[in-house]
C-alpha cells in the first residue's frame, strides 16, 4: 500500500505552549478519498524520529494504519533526529532524565488526540516503540483509548528511572490496577547481553503484569538490545528476527484495532489471553 507523509505542530500545555512536532504517515488508496484506518503511535528511541524509526513507521502505515511519530524532546530542541554517535547518545540520555514523566504522558495524549481527530483515522488506536519508546508505548496503554501496546526492549520500567529525578511510577500504576480491563500489552526483549534490562528486570516486569492480571504476551528472544534497528545497531540488527516479530506485532494490531468488534460485553472480565 502506498503511503504519504506530513507533520503537525501541536502546542504543549506543560511547556508554555512550545509545540511538539508529530510526524504522520498515512496509507494512500487512490480513488478512495474517504477511506478510514486504525491509528498507531510509534514512540522513538532517545534519538527522536530517525531514519530507522521512520522506516519502521512506514512499514506499519503500508499495512493500512495511520501512524503518528512524536518528537519526544521538543522541550529541549527542534524535531530533527539526534545523531547515532557518542555526543548524540549522551544528549539523548540526558534529556531522558530531564524531562518530566507528566510531559511524556502529555506527548502520548496529544498523539492519540491527533490521530483520533484525523479524517482518515477511525479512532481505534494502538502504540508501539523501541527502547525509551517501548516504555512510552507501555505508559500509553494507561489511556483507555489505546487498545494494544507492543513494546520492544522497553527500558527503565524495571528500575523506575524514567524522567526527572529518575523516579517514574509505571509499575506502581500497574500494581494499582491502572491496566486492568484495558488494552493488550506485548513485551519483547532480547535475552542476549542487555545492560539495559537484565534478566531480573524482565522477571520483575513479567511478574508485575501477571499479578495484576493484565492481558499480555511476554517474549524473550535470542537477540541483543536494539536488534530491530537497521542502522548504527553496533552489529546487533537481526533482520530475519525483526521480520518475524513485525509480523507478530501486525497480528496483534489487526486483531485489536484492525477490526471494529463493537463494545466489550458488560461484566466480561475474561482476557483474550493472559501471560
From TrEMBL:
Transmembrane segments: none annotated. GO terms for molecular function: hydrolase activity. It comes from the Eukaryota. Residues 33-253 form the Dienelactone hydrolase domain. SUPFAM superfamilies: alpha/beta-Hydrolases. It holds the Pfam family DLH. InterPro entries: AB_hydrolase_fold, Dienelactn_hydro. This is Dienelactone hydrolase domain-containing protein. It comes from Leucocoprinus leucothites.
Amino acid at each position: 500500500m502506498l503511503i504519504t507523509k506530513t507533520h503537525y505542530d501541536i502546542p504543549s500545555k506543560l511547556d508554555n505552549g512550545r509545540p511538539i512536532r508529530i510526524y504522520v504517515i498515512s496509507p494512500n488508496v487512490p480513488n478512495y478519498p474517504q477511506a478510514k484506518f486504525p491509528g498507531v503511535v510509534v514512540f522513538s528511541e532517545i534519538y527522536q524520529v530517525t531514519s530507522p524509526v521512520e522506516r519502521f513507521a512506514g512499514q506499519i502505515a503500508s499495512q493500512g494504519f495511520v501512524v503518528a511519530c512524536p518528537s519526544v524532546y521538543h522541550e529541549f530542541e527542534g524535531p530533527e533526529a539526534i545523531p547515532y554517535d557518542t555526543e548524540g547518545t549522551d544528549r539523548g540520555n540526558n534529556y531522558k532524565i530531564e524531562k518530566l514523566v507528566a510531559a511524556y504522558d502529555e506527548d502520548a495524549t496529544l498523539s492519540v488526540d491527533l490521530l483520533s481527530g484525523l479524517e482518515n483515522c477511525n479512532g481505534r488506536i494502538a502504540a508501539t516503540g523501541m527502547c525509551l519508546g517501548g516504555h512510552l508505548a507501555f505508559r500509553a496503554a494507561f489511556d483507555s483509548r489505546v487498545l494494544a501496546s507492543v513494546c520492544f526492549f522497553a527500558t527503565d520500567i524495571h528500575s523506575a528511572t524514567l524522567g526527572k529525578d529518575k523516579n517514574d511510577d509505571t509499575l506502581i500504576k500497574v500494581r494499582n490496577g491502572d491496566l486492568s480491563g484495558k488494552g493488550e500489552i506485548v513485551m519483547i526483549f532480547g535475552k542476549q547481553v542487555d545492560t539495559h534490562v537484565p534478566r531480573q528486570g524482565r522477571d520483575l516486569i513479567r511478574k508485575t503484569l501477571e499479578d495484576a492480571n493484565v492481558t499480555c504476551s511476554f517474549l524473550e528472544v535470542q537477540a541483543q538490545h536494539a536488534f530491530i534497528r537497521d542502522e548504527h545497531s553496533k552489529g546487533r540488527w537481526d533482520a530475519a528476527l525483526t521480520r518475524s516479530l513485525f509480523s507478530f506485532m501486525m497480528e496483534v494490531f489487526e486483531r485489536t484495532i484492525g477490526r471494529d468488534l463493537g463494545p466489550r460485553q458488560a461484566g466480561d472480565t475474561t482476557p483474550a489471553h493472559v501471560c
